[in-house]
Structures are given as C-alpha cells and as structure tokens.
C-alpha cells in the first residue's frame, strides 16, 4: 500500500507526457500553417499592393472538448480513433474583406505542394438553413518530428468580416440558450444573415469596380537586376550617396 501513491504519480506523469506529445504535432502544424499564411499574405501584398487577409486566428481544442465530441459522435475514446475522426483539433480561421478574397486565399493555400485537401464544404454557395456562411476545409500537412513524420488534420475556415460577425453572434446566442434559442430570436438571426449576404455582395461589386483598371493593366515581370549596366551603376551610385546627403 505504501508504494501505491508512487505508482499513481508515475502513471499520471506518463499520461501527461503522452498527452503533451499528442498535442505537440497539432501545435507545430498550427505554427507551420500560420507561417505559410503570413508568407502568402506578405507576398500578395507586395505583388498586388493589396492584402486579402484582415486577420488570422488559430486554436487547439482542449482535451475536454475532444472527449465531449468523441462521446457525442458515439466513438470509442482511443487515441488512434481521435487522430482520424476528430479532424478539427487544430483550427485556423482566416477573415477577409471580400468574397472573392475567400477563394483567392483558398487557391493560394492549396497550391502549396505539402498541403493536402481532405474535405471541403462551401457554406457560401450553399448556406446552412440558419443562414451561416463560411468556407470550410480539412487539410493535412506533414510535421517532421525527430524520429518520424506525422500528418495531422487542420480545419481551415475562411469568411468575410461580416460573416464572422454574424457567426460570432450566433455562437453567443446558442451558448446563452444552450441551443434552444427562442423562435423569434432565430428568425431575427436568419434575417440578419440575409442582410449580411446582401452587404457582402454589394461590397464585392464595389471592390471589383475599384480594381477593374488594376486588372486590365498587367505589367511585364522583370527581374530586379536585369537592367542595362549603366542604369544599374547609376542606381548603385545614388544608393551610396544617399546616407551622406541626408
């Protein structure tokens, strides 16, 4: 009996270590995806003088949330099952200004050779009955550990600012009323979703009109050092003089 507390403590430490290793791959894949998004955003901004991404938010499900979802889906609480069936343990939400940005971001992400599209649900083309709109993707990205490679799933949600505001309000309502919101409140929420849809479409038309001239003029791409020798020398000379001139 005297040894039992020691055994329990050692088992607890073993579980904690395994849990830490389990979540490590998901934490790493989130960091990798956020870095990819940051690079694409900066490159797009330099190339087009415009950023399609307003902000990005990432999150990891807690162990409690994972267990609740496993039980809700009537699945066995097994690590292998959780890895395969619970595909939103790691999640990223990308918010942008316009509808066209959503598909621009989607295409840029999926053009990455190491991002594998597993599933996609377009709730913009086909909104949910309550009016919810967003583009959802499940992707897999390799994570190179010290002795093996893991391919954790990541849920990516892409939506406009207006869609995100509506979804946030819907979540608060359902949380407050424990998914049993009054019918009149649901009706108001559905009406708000229609207003969001109309606003997004109007803003998209304005956005397309503003950038019509930008798209019609496509300058030829040039490498920065592919210049006549005398022009290059003149630029270098100007760069050398600039600090002393100031």
Summarize this structure briefly.
With 246 residues, the protein is an alpha+beta fold.
Give a structural overview.
The structure is a single chain. This protein is of the alpha+beta class and about 250 residues long. It has a domain at about 5-160: Beta Polymerase, domain 2. It is about 55% helix and about 15% strand. The chain has eight helices and seven strands. The chain has helices at about 5-50, 65-70, 80-85, 100-110, 160-175, 185-210, 210-215, 230-245, and strands at about 55-60, 90-95, 115-120, 135-140, 145, 150, 155-160. Strands 1-2-7-4-3 form a five-stranded mixed β-sheet. Strand 5 and strand 6 form a beta hairpin. Helix 5 packs antiparallel against helix 6 (about 185-210). The longest helix is centred in the N-terminal third of the chain and has 45 residues, at about 5-50. The radius of gyration is 25 Å and the shape is flat. The protein starts with a helix and ends with a helix. The mean pLDDT is about 85.
């Amino acid at each position: 009996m005297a040894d039992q507390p020691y055994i329990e403590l050692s088992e607890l430490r073993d579980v904690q270590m395994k849990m830490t290793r389990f979540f490590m791959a998901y934490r790493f894949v989130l960091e990798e995806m956020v870095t990819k998004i940051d690079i694409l955003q900066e490159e797009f901004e330099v190339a087009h003088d415009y950023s399609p991404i307003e902000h990005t938010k990432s999150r990891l499900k807690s162990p409690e949330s994972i267990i609740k979802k496993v039980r809700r889906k009537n699945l066995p609480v097994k690590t292998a099952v959780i890895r395969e069936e619970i595909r939103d343990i790691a999640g990223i939400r990308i918010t942008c200004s316009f509808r066209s940005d959503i598909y621009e971001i989607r295409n840029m992400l999926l053009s990455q050779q190491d991002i594998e599209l597993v599933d996609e649900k377009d709730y913009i083309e086909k909104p949910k009955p309550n009016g919810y709109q967003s583009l959802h993707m499940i992707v897999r990205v390799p994570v190179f550990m010290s002795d093996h490679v893991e391919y954790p799933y990541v849920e990516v949600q892409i939506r406009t600012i207006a869609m995100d505001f509506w979804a946030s309000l819907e979540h608060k309502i359902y949380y407050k009323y424990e998914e049993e919101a009054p019918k009149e409140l649901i009706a108001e929420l559905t009406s708000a979703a229609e207003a969001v849809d109309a606003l997004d479409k109007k803003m998209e038309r304005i956005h397309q009109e503003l950038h019509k001239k930008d798209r019609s003029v496509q300058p030829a791409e040039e490498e920065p050092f592919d210049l006549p020798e005398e022009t290059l020398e003149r630029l270098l000379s100007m760069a050398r003089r600039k600090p002393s001139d100031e």
